[in-house]
């Protein structure tokens, strides 16, 4: 047996190897003898089939298995001898026989990159700062009130924010078009359910009034047969309803889960939930910056095999997500290559973080995992039940452990980089800024 390693690129390796044919033949014979003890053939009792017949029927199978085992053994020995970390699965390429004494082949594979933890001390990381006050609680309560808006009929002209119930008919060149007609159709003016020009045409109309107007669809309208086309609508207003927001009282508090209707207690719970959400969003922003820092300070090449595996996993996740939303994915082409850039980033971060955790001892401690789970559970009605749910299955516990490890990595980078506290607004943090 002989072998020779060739470095093709930073991560790709080729190893030329050979296995004596005599060793393979010996293994083939051993496998056939083992088969002959139990093989069944018509006219013979089990274990009594002549060896020659067993070899004729099962020889190709035994030879294939013997060759596979020999290749695996030799390659494994070479990998172990050179202390190589294989990424993905090796590709085995048979070579043209130069003689009759050995089977020659080439194994092509990638190895994991060597990662040296980079210097992050010059990197700048901003830490958003926001203290939840009564103003943020009031804003949140306003949102919750709007989510519980009711509408009441009113005898006046429709205005912004009103809900109207209409009949409408759309015509192009005097002919009704598909999708252009409806009866008893409700929509809120200004909510964006209808095109802006359509909403504007309904403004000022009272129940019982009608209007005919021309309207041009946007050039990028989703219905291609209407995109950029000018049509005529006839609208009849059947009802105008004004919005009614609930008062912040005991009934409102009960609707938010405060059993005794205590408004002060409701505000305290809303504030506590906001503080948790603010903390989560601040951590998410810092984490995103930390991940970018790790990428910037560790310009490593990643194995293509790992990127391909991750791309395939992301494609499968996307497919499951579509199915969970009720979409049929049987004929939906989801190509793994679409996720190549995202996959490469995830693989790179995974390798860097793994080395960082190992070299800086950032493993998750049991008390950290417990604290994280308890934090998750705090917003539920029965936190102890949620905690028990996590600890009832190792897979769920592993998810919490992975989050703790990420937090440990983030904390290490933040503590070693240039950090500054920056005041941020509630709207900006929550994504409500214009």
From TrEMBL:
It is an enzyme of class 5 (isomerase). Its main location: cytoplasm. The keyword Isomerase applies. It comes from the Bacteria. One of its GO terms (biological process) is cell division. GO terms for molecular function: peptidyl-prolyl cis-trans isomerase activity; protein folding chaperone; ribosome binding. One of its GO terms (cellular component) is cytoplasm. Keywords: Cell cycle, Cell division, Chaperone, Cytoplasm, Isomerase, Rotamase. Pfam families: FKBP_C, Trigger_C, Trigger_N. Its EC number is 5.2.1.8. It is found in: Cytoplasm. Coiled coil: none annotated. Residues 161-246 form the PPIase FKBP-type domain. PROSITE patterns: FKBP_PPIASE (PS50059). It catalyses: [protein]-peptidylproline (omega=180) = [protein]-peptidylproline (omega=0). Belongs to the FKBP-type PPIase family. Tig subfamily. Consists of 3 domains; the N-terminus binds the ribosome, the middle domain has PPIase activity, while the C-terminus has intrinsic chaperone activity on its own. Involved in protein export. Acts as a chaperone by maintaining the newly synthesized protein in an open conformation. Functions as a peptidyl-prolyl cis-trans isomerase. HAMAP family: Trigger_factor_Tig. This is Trigger factor.
């Amino acid at each position: 047996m002989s072998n020779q390693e060739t470095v093709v690129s930073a991560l790709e390796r080729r190893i030329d190897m050979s296995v004596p044919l005599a060793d393979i033949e010996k293994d083939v014979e051993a496998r056939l003898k083992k088969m002959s003890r139990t093989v069944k053939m018509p006219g013979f009792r089990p274990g009594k089939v002549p060896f020659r017949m067993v070899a004729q029927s099962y020889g190709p199978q035994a030879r294939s298995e013997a060759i596979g085992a020999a290749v695996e053994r030799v390659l494994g020995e070479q990998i172990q001898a050179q202390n190589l970390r294989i990424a993905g699965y090796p590709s085995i390429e048979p070579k043209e026989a130069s003689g009759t004494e050995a089977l020659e082949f080439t194994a092509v594979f990638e190895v994991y990159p060597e990662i040296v933890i980079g210097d992050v001390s010059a990197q700048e990381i901003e830490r958003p700062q926001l203290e939840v006050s009564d103003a943020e609680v009031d804003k949140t309560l306003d949102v919750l009130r709007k989510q519980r808006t009711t509408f009441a009929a009113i005898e006046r002209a429709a205005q912004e924010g009103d809900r109207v119930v209409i009949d409408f008919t759309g015509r192009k060149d005097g002919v009704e078009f598909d999708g252009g007609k409806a009866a008893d159709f409700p929509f809120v003016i200004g909510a964006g359910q209808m095109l802006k020009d359509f909403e504007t045409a309904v403004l000022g109309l009272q129940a019982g009034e009608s209007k005919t107007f021309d309207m041009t669809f946007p050039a990028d309208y989703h219905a291609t047969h209407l995109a950029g086309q000018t049509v005529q609508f006839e609208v009849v207003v059947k009802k105008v309803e004004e919005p009614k927001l609930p008062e912040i009282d005991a009934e409102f508090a009960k609707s938010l889960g405060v059993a005794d209707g205590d408004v002060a207690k409701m505000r305290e719970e809303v504030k506590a939930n906001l503080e948790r959400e603010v903390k989560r969003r601040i951590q998410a922003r810092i984490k995103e910056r930390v991940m970018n820092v790790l990428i910037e300070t560790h310009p490593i090449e990643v194995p293509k095999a790992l990127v391909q595996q991750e791309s395939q996993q992301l494609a499968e996740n996307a497919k499951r997500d579509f199915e969970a939303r009720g979409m049929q994915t049987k004929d939906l082409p989801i190509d793994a290559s679409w996720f190549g850039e995202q996959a490469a980033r995830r693989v790179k971060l995974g390798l860097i973080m793994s080395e960082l955790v190992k070299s800086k001892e950032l493993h998750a401690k049991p008390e950290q995992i417990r604290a994280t789970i308890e934090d998750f559970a705090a917003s539920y009605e029965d936190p102890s039940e949620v905690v028990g749910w996590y600890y009832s299955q190792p897979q769920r516990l592993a998810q919490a452990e992975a989050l703790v490890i990420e937090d440990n990595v983030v904390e290490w980078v933040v503590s070693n980089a240039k950090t500054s506290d920056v005041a941020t607004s509630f709207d900006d943090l929550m994504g409500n800024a214009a």
